[in-house]
């Protein structure tokens, strides 16, 4: 949907025809709803965007004439390596081979490929239509031109790409996310706050600031600049950080406690989860609209 919104012709490839059929139908419904609500991205109409999207079960047909290939198979290293090995034998020197992996390092995915200089991780954030960040993570042998091309393409389709300048486990987003999850889990496990109140800390506290400012600018503004913040709060931060415990196991009684608390709010059946995700997406859509209305500084 994002690539079509930028005017690009898109082919969906899968080994199961039913997956393709279901995807195309879901895309048709979603794009129509977006147009009706005035939230459709890009300058093209829903009809024009839908005409750009097709599906096929032949991988060679799917990549014919492609300038960018975005792999989105499950987070399985063996499967992804098999896909990229096949693609490596099908493409020429003018196509970017990109993975949507959220944490597999490019050196584990792409090493040994003939077209390694054209390979890059372009990790989107769920749901990507409403959350525009894309992490660009090159292989050590990725050509700078590949990074530049992918960065420009992501900007053209309305995303907000960042450059992760060297490989690191979890990239940037998940390292930050997992740090929050880890401490959140400890606070609940140790009985400091309830699961519901823990989520309020983010949704009614930190998250409101972080929707517009990152943690570093937040520090900068919460004092008379960054030096002032570190002088004022540095010792206190180090004291608190030293009290952080080991990595949680994410198992046992705490899992059950958190699961029950979450299910009391959103039952874990497909219908309730889908409805809550739809609500989440609508909230994100409205937030993005607000962010576009706020003049940049």
Could you describe the 3D structure shown?
The protein is of the alpha/beta class and 297 residues long. It has 3 domains: 1-57, no CATH class; 61-171, NAD(P)-binding Rossmann-like Domain (Rossmann fold, 3-Layer(aba) Sandwich), CATH 3.40.50; 173-265, N-(1-d-carboxylethyl)-l-norvaline Dehydrogenase, domain 2. It contains 13 helices and 7 strands. The strands form 2 sheets. The chain has a 5-stranded mixed beta sheet with strand order 3-4-5-6-7, with helices on both faces. The chain has a two-stranded parallel sheet with strand order 1-2. Helix 7 links the parallel strand 6 (133-138) and strand 7 (160-163). Helix 10 (215-221) packs across helix 11. The longest helix is centred in the last third of the chain and has 24 residues, at 270-293. It is globular and about 60 Å long. The model has no long low-confidence stretch (mean pLDDT 96). Belongs to the 3-hydroxyacyl-CoA dehydrogenase family. One of its GO terms (biological process) is fatty acid metabolic process. It is an enzyme of class 1 (oxidoreductase). This is L-gulonate 3-dehydrogenase. InterPro entries: 3-OHacyl-CoA_DH (IPR022694), 3-OHacyl-CoA_DH_CS (IPR006180), 3-OHacyl-CoA_DH_NAD-bd (IPR006176), 3HC_DH_C (IPR006108), 6-PGluconate_DH-like_C_sf (IPR008927), 6PGD_dom2 (IPR013328), NAD(P)-bd_dom_sf (IPR036291).
What does the secondary structure layout of this molecule look like, with pairings?
Blueprint (H helix, E strand, L loop, with lengths): L1 H4 L4 E4 L3 H20 L9 H6 L1 E4 L2 H5 L4 E4 L5 H12 L7 E4 L6 H5 L8 E6 L8 E6 L5 H13 L3 E4 L9 H17 L5 H16 L4 H7 L4 H16 L11 H13 L4 H24 L4
Parallel strand pairs: 1-2, 3-4, 4-5, 6-7
Antiparallel strand pairs: 5-6
Helix pairs in contact: 10-11
């Amino acid at each position: 949907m994002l690539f079509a919104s930028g005017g690009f012709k898109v082919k969906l490839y899968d080994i199961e025809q039913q997956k393709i059929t279901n995807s195309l139908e879901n895309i048709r419904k979603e794009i129509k709803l977006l147009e009706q609500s005035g939230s459709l991205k890009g300058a093209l109409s829903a009809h024009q965007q839908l005409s750009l999207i097709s599906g096929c079960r032949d991988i060679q047909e799917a990549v014919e004439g492609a300038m960018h290939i975005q792999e989105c198979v499950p987070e399985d290293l063996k499967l992804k390596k098999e896909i990229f090995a096949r693609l490596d034998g099908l493409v020429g020197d003018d196509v970017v081979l990109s993975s949507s992996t959220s944490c597999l390092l490019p050196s584990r995915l792409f090493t040994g490929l003939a077209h390694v200089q054209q390979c890059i991780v372009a990790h989107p954030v769920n749901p990507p239509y409403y959350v525009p960040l894309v992490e660009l993570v090159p292989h050590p042998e990725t050509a700078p031109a590949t990074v530049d091309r992918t960065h420009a393409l992501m900007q053209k389709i309305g995303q907000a790409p960042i450059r992760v300048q060297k490989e690191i486990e979890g990239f940037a987003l998940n390292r930050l996310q997992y740090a929050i999850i880890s401490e959140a889990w400890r606070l609940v496990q140790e009985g400091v706050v309830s699961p519901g109140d823990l989520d309020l800390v983010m949704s009614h506290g930190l998250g409101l600031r972080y929707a517009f400012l990152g943690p570093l600018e937040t520090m900068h503004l919460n004092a008379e600049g960054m030096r002032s913040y570190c002088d004022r709060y540095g010792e206190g931060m180090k004291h608190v950080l030293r009290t952080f415990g080991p990595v949680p196991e994410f198992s046992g009684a705490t899992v059950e406690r958190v699961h029950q608390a979450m299910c009391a709010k959103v039952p874990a059946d497909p219908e309730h989860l889908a409805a809550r995700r739809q609500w989440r997406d609508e909230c994100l859509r409205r937030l993005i609209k607000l962010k576009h209305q706020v003049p940049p500084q």
